[in-house]
Amino acid sequence: MKRSPTAGKQLLFQAKLENWAEGMDYCAVPVPASVTQALGTKGPVSVMARVNDSEPFKVSLFPTGGGQHYIRIKAKVRKETKTKTGDRVRVRFTVLDRADVTIPTDLMKALRAEGVTDDFKSLPPGKQNFIIRRIDDAAKAETRDKRIQDAVEAAHRRREKRIDQSK
Predict the structure, then answer these.
(1) pLDDT value at residue 48
(2) What is the reported pTM?
């Protein structure tokens, strides 16, 4: 199971919403083994998902070992769908192309200002998408700004690594 999941593949399953971290508002849904098997990978998978009749949201199926994946369900989605821990939910998702990276305008501006746009783009697509998703998930403007700065710093580290490797 080492191939990449096929972009555009659509899958559907039902499962119970679980509290993932005791004392925190962090909920996730276990992905059935049959779905993981259909994806053909034990690694993370970027998807566009819907829970019940929610608005689509971008998220990754995250591996937890032993071929098991979970999908995190944000509080915003749980509120929209009026679901809580223990509820059975219907999850539909479409596999996204990991190589398809759309850099938000504010991040692009910050990267250009620091002259590290190409360095950010040289990060693996999965890493770029992870960084961008963290930025997009920020609830507050100051958190978004901090995460954009973190992304710029990651691009700087990538530049330093590339320079060190060329010596």
Answers:
(1) 93
(2) 0.72
Single-letter residue type at 55: E
DSSP secondary structure string, 53-101?
A: TPPPEEEEEEEEETTEEEEEE-HHHHHHHT--TT-EEEEEEEE--TT--
One-letter-per-residue 3-state SS of 92-117: EEEECCCCCCCCCHHHHHHHHHHCCH
DSSP three-state, residue 29:
strand
Q: In whole angstroms, what is the distance from residue 129 CA to residue 65 CA? A: 22
CA angle 34, 24, 143 (to 5 degrees): 100
Q: CA–CA distance from 114 to each of 137, 155, 159 (Å)?
A: 23, 9, 11
Contact of 13 with 31, CB cutoff 8 Å: yes
Contacts of 85 (CB under 8 A, 6+ apart): 17, 18, 19, 27
